[in-house]
Amino acid sequence: MTDTTDTIVYRLSANCDLEEVEEGKMYLGRVQGFANFGVFVQLNDRVKGLVHKSNIKADHSERDPIIVEVLQIRKNGNIDLEEVMPQVYRTESVTKAMPTIRLSDLGRKIGRTVMIEAEVAQIKQTSGPTIFTLVDESATENAAAFIEAGVRAYPEVQLGDIVGVVGEVMQRNNQLQIEVSSLSVLEPEDADRVRARIDQALDERAEPEDMPFLVESDVFERLRPAMRNVAKQIRKAVFTAQPIVLRHHADADGICAAVAVETAVTALIRESGGDFDAEYFLFKRSPSKAPFYEIEDITRDLDFALKDNIRYGQKMPMILLMDNGSTEEDVPAMKVTEIYGFPVVVVDHHHPDEIVDQYLIGHVNPYHVGGDFGITAGMLGTEIARMINPAVEEQIKHLPAIAAVGDRSEAPERARYLELAAPAYSEQHCKDIALALDYEQFWLRFNDGREIVKDIVNLSGNAERHMRFVNLLTAEANSAIEEQMEAVMPHVVSRVLPNGANLFMLDVEMYAHRFTFPPPGKTSGEVHDRLVREHPGEPVVTLGFGPDFAVLRSKGVMMNIPRMVRELRQEIVGGGVNGGGHLVVGSIKFVEGMRDAVLDGLIEKIGQAPI
Amino acid sequence: MTDTTDTIVYRLSANCDLEEVEEGKMYLGRVQGFANFGVFVQLNDRVKGLVHKSNIKADHSERDPIIVEVLQIRKNGNIDLEEVMPQVYRTESVTKAMPTIRLSDLGRKIGRTVMIEAEVAQIKQTSGPTIFTLVDESATENAAAFIEAGVRAYPEVQLGDIVGVVGEVMQRNNQLQIEVSSLSVLEPEDADRVRARIDQALDERAEPEDMPFLVESDVFERLRPAMRNVAKQIRKAVFTAQPIVLRHHADADGICAAVAVETAVTALIRESGGDFDAEYFLFKRSPSKAPFYEIEDITRDLDFALKDNIRYGQKMPMILLMDNGSTEEDVPAMKVTEIYGFPVVVVDHHHPDEIVDQYLIGHVNPYHVGGDFGITAGMLGTEIARMINPAVEEQIKHLPAIAAVGDRSEAPERARYLELAAPAYSEQHCKDIALALDYEQFWLRFNDGREIVKDIVNLSGNAERHMRFVNLLTAEANSAIEEQMEAVMPHVVSRVLPNGANLFMLDVEMYAHRFTFPPPGKTSGEVHDRLVREHPGEPVVTLGFGPDFAVLRSKGVMMNIPRMVRELRQEIVGGGVNGGGHLVVGSIKFVEGMRDAVLDGLIEKIGQAPI
Amino acid sequence: MTDTTDTIVYRLSANCDLEEVEEGKMYLGRVQGFANFGVFVQLNDRVKGLVHKSNIKADHSERDPIIVEVLQIRKNGNIDLEEVMPQVYRTESVTKAMPTIRLSDLGRKIGRTVMIEAEVAQIKQTSGPTIFTLVDESATENAAAFIEAGVRAYPEVQLGDIVGVVGEVMQRNNQLQIEVSSLSVLEPEDADRVRARIDQALDERAEPEDMPFLVESDVFERLRPAMRNVAKQIRKAVFTAQPIVLRHHADADGICAAVAVETAVTALIRESGGDFDAEYFLFKRSPSKAPFYEIEDITRDLDFALKDNIRYGQKMPMILLMDNGSTEEDVPAMKVTEIYGFPVVVVDHHHPDEIVDQYLIGHVNPYHVGGDFGITAGMLGTEIARMINPAVEEQIKHLPAIAAVGDRSEAPERARYLELAAPAYSEQHCKDIALALDYEQFWLRFNDGREIVKDIVNLSGNAERHMRFVNLLTAEANSAIEEQMEAVMPHVVSRVLPNGANLFMLDVEMYAHRFTFPPPGKTSGEVHDRLVREHPGEPVVTLGFGPDFAVLRSKGVMMNIPRMVRELRQEIVGGGVNGGGHLVVGSIKFVEGMRDAVLDGLIEKIGQAPI
């Protein structure tokens, strides 16, 4: 569709003043209000005129669009208008010479009035002004619009709109703010242009720096594209003021992975401008109870996300899953994220199920490139954190070593990260930190313990306190383990299976201290470790069970736990069998009343496994 | 007591200025402060004068009342006073011509100074001004009094006082506020007059509009007065800025009832002026764990209410119970509400015990007028919500259909509401929504999930998201039910009782997945439904039990569960038997060690019930 | 090291103005910024000059120190400087005649500019100004520094710094605030001098008044020094704006102790100035689940303390333990407080283990001076509360009587406190209040219930409401106990032990209502009381047990429960035995599978105890 008419109706952009208005020209305005003698019309937020009642052609309501011709601009600045109704016309924008500037340039414009084109990333009503968080390709900054204490300014502006803002730049110390004098949603074509410009520039800005990994690793080299992608997605979320919810496995490896990214992201948020406390409401770290993203987790995350969106005008969050998120068990929760349009990114080292990938915009997993769980989440997280924000490298580069010993990695990268951490962090100290993390997280009960955890991994800049605290936690944890072992070891029952494996069984609810550290899974693990040491070179399987669950650990026995679970589920009618795991560790759930049948079936299968 | 004296001492009202002061007249003032040369006296918040030390007759402290005569009003506005001590006198108020206006008229007085007489409904100290929420017969508005950042202005004014306020009206967009220039508690006689005026007008304003019900229903017609009363009480709470705590049964019917009222009330709060976020702190919806108002619930509600009252100056709340509240089990909690003066309103369809009514200011229950539980709480709630706020009808009119199928109503109203909801909501879709509500509430763990629930019942204006989310939740719920049935059905034990009833028994703790959806009660219900389908036309009783409880469902057997419980309690010494229910569904609690005796006794009684 | 040079470089103190600058003298300044024509130098926050580029001797960065000589002070106030580099010099401070005033004198300086020297006790960024809470020897007050909305003013100032502040005093009503015009960290020598002055004066100010106890008591007289010390530590925390976390046993005695101190402390915080809501964030009361300070408790307290410190600039808290804290079981948590430098104070009447004292800065315990548990925590807490703040005596003086009957004290002080409380509080009414506290705390689930509890102990000034509420709670509690007794009493099994003691055994999980009031421990206690009444004069031991615990109560049997536990732990391999108690009451934990062995062993030992 081409406009061939010569009749032009001008639209006065938000940054224009009286100077840009010309007598004799037609403008698209909006009805502002009514008086006895006529109708007031806004040409933009700053320029208003009057259509005398004798010059009105139609009935209007407030905020109706209206086309007017400028009859006269008086010396006192009053504008006399006439309503006109051209049949055919094209519209054209009038923009002031004042150039729009990038948000990153605000610092050089302090005290001056500027024009900004940006996306609205949050709209927060305070008891004073309304705060619009603006994002463009270069930075995030706040614009404060004050109408009246506690009253929403510019109610027509919505989250995600592309707006033109004119205002004065205020600054002292290291924070900037625009005091809005006008703010309006751009017309669709302008908005499209600005959005395209912002998107392209953001895409470039979000691209991580090229850098070598902290240690040599073939697996890492093959994972590089996936890791860069995840780092880029996270950087983009930060640059567009999108909240990030980081869910992670609540063990030492998961915590290290998550804290590395937390360190990188919160520093990046602080640098990127915006609210003085943005690092608290734009980033949340939540340990998960289960080793996967449960329905209960997504329900809680969705509940908060929708409430923050409706009440505080925040964007929907990105979900970042670390040390979980790779398996079929995560799918129900991911289906929810899909419906709500939450982008999801996974950094995991559990054996991945292909089905999850359809729900993800990024997935780092060593199994994708021939690696395995020996490349721990803490290693991956730390390398990604460097890509997100290289400035934090020195602070976090010891975290992979902690993760490696915590997760008992046997990959070659383990030694390299330990070397990198040494001599400041010996292998024993890394083990102590990992145990301290597990112990403290148990008592934190799935709270993030943000500042406590920083002390444990020595990120709060108080090395002496770190050392004393880790020593204390390690001593307490070891004494609790010792006490648990004293209670349970006398109750371990052993038998030799047909395949020659030593099976050790323990009822961890009947014979262990409950609701304290170590919990049943860790208790079984400790028992297993001791039994393996007592039977060097022999095949050992440890089966810790409670009324409706069993935990399996093995050494030297080739069990396929997922297949065993599938078979038991088939064979034992009404057993309610469920569960999973890897070759050497797994867990099974069943209904309490069928425990004996399930355990018998399970033991039979273990006895058939190759040694 | 009659005043016969001609000596008059005037009281200068809050809205008076220097113009209203006359030389030679006597006024009742207050000592404001001391100087070398005399004592400053306030005639009201705006008019002050000086008593020279030579004219002081007595010792005074700050804020003491004092009677003064005006010697002279100087050109610069200074007032010279003399202390006087008339033996006999009467007082009379001087009020300025300035008329008091209603809060609803503020919108027409923007930029002007007005006088308001109103009740103080909240006093909130902010880090800036003190915000007094004012209520009169017409509206709720905020008045901001600023003394100093964070300092309580007018500390003598208390919650519930009737005050006179003079201030300037500020407004832009759709919110109003009074900037206080003077604020004072009215003298008792004035206060009584104003309170009477406000009360009467509020009473009229709170009266719901007359309107037909959404569907034809004899029961509804007979319930109309009770429903109007409840709607009126709720409207009055909103108009007087009284917080409302809505407690409801955490199932699909209870949620529908509560969400209908939530929609009506929050919209009414927004319309009624006051704080920009009043809809959040003046309305709280809380699903209850038990099917009644537990001691634990009222303890929590009371804890918050008292803290909000002391710390944030809020009124004590109204309690609204939906889909619970009608039975004896609610009485202990209601006794607490009585002591604290919380008004309580019940909308329920469980068989009511008369004893509750002494604690209530409103009670809607179909049993009161010959109806029964087929008139679900969701139906009642939706009709009452329309009375509260007719504007929300279009949004909520499909909720009764969801409630009807969710609660398996067999009342004739069920079909009528389904017809009303169709074709947008088919019967199957209503069933799906009801199941989705049950499923999601299970994972919400008694959080309200305000925005999530709106999506499930399609109140957030995103029909596509609603549809996809309900489909997902329904699929997940059905698959969880299917898995539970696979585990439990092989363990159902059956026997034929002396009266010919088929009794099916299931241990729902030993043979079901625990701590997941469906929970024991719903598991028993699903089992029962399947067994009924497998035995068409036969009498069926399903008994799901755990270590210390049993859940009963029946079809075709005329059990009087409350009586059976009473008898068992008598007969089984040390059984600790408790519980209740209706004809077809009930639950029983007992001490674990007496389970066999209780179940045997129970089965014997079931075997004697008429078929 | 002595300065012998005559060359003096002056440092201009924060309160100095242009008047204090002299031409020809040298000053130590700081580089403020750069211009084409030279370098701007600050002599202090208020006095700036210019070094023309021709007078610069070296390269500088922003905020570098620089020594300058004043060439000329122009009429317009501009100062011409020259950079100088004296080889040998001594520095001297120039201070304005303006005297520094104490914070407690602010009230007499309203509207005037003052100089304050004080410690920074909190730095809170608001969405408006930055609030520095200042503490000196006399009071706590806030200073507001505004740079820009939401921007941290004076970022170089840290928590705990000694600062010089110049600003205007603002006040109306009863709150004061300094509007900062300059604020700077004092040089080390000045800071040391001020800190010494403040510390000494605070020490004197914190000293409690000398006063007699409410009742005569030898034990109290001997405890006086320890009580004074604890009161002083608490007063000092209040005066220095250090948060206090009060952890207490969740029974009637612990609550009375804690509420007495809460009343004293919150009133003292209100008097001491600072934020309008300081009493909420500087004082937290938390009932503990266990009868000691658990790892879970300290983890939670540490989590919040560190977050408040990092995010809201609060000091690390003092921990006050009441009715717990005296035993070995508290040590693991105390080790954490030691590492984080949280001072800990204990007021307890359980038999103390000496090991705790190394972690404490104050410990009141009657056993230290030959008293015993008959001197209840509520008695101790009330007397200490009076020392903290004598003004609250009238309000709290009945609390020891409630604590005494609640804890069944048989000390002579019991009768004296009851006499003091009478006739307003009869012994029966005190018992009712104690029962009401236990009952309501059960439903509060370890929330503090701040305002509810005040009503129960009649501290909220509404005596009628108090009376009705206590009557209701007592009736409900007694009816719940009655119902529990009906369930359990028929299941009590008795036997006569070799030593002639009557042993009564009850499985409180199998035969009692669970998850309701009364909980297992109280259920056992009630059973014991009834059995003692039924067997007057005979030795009675009641053993209530569950799957992995047992609760012991005895009358007339001399058991040493701690020793019995130690022996059982030795004798029963894999029993996991733990626990403790006094002579007449104790509890034991064990692993479920070894219950029979542990109970048999325990009963054997009870049978050998002397009667």
Automatic annotation (TrEMBL), chains A, B, C:
| PROSITE patterns xref list | S1
Family matches, as Pfam families: DHH (PF01368), S1 (PF00575), tRNA_anti-codon (PF01336)
Q: Which regions span the lipid bilayer?
A: none
Which SMART domains does the record cross-reference, listed alphabetically? S1
UniProt name for this protein: Phosphoesterase
User: Which InterPro entries does UniProt cross-reference here?
Assistant: DDH_dom (IPR001667), DHH_sf (IPR038763), NA-bd_OB-fold (IPR012340), NA-bd_OB_tRNA (IPR004365), S1_domain (IPR003029)
For molecular function, the Gene Ontology terms on record are: nucleic acid binding
Instruction: Give residue ranges for domain S1 motif.
Output: 24-84
User: What is the top-level taxon of the source organism?
Assistant: Archaea
